[in-house]
Write a structure and sequence with these properties.
Elements lengths: L1 E7 H8 L5 E5 L5 E5 L11 E10 L5 E6 L3
Antiparallel strand pairs: 1-4, 2-3, 4-5
Length: 71
């Protein structure tokens, strides 16, 4: 599933500090996706997290992979 997300650096700190544990986004197809916020950490910059991503789950809805899509 693909989705676009923008999380400011300050907002991501809430996830990092454990105040919020999950990210909830609406996929391009309209489905709601909820996944652990720490999966976004590799994509964090000084500006936060911004981009179009693809997330993959297995048949049991377990996280497999998260990747940034090219612009």
């Amino acid at each position: 599933m693909q989705f676009h997300i923008f999380i400011s650096y300050d907002e991501y700190e809430k996830y990092y500090q454990g105040v919020a544990k999950n990210v909830r986004v609406r996929a391009d197809n309209g489905q709601v996706i909820v996944f652990p916020a720490n999966r976004m950490q590799p994509f964090l910059t000084h500006d936060g997290i911004n981009g179009h991503f693809e997330i993959t789950f297995d048949k049991d809805n377990k996280f497999v992979q998260l990747s940034r899509l090219p612009v």
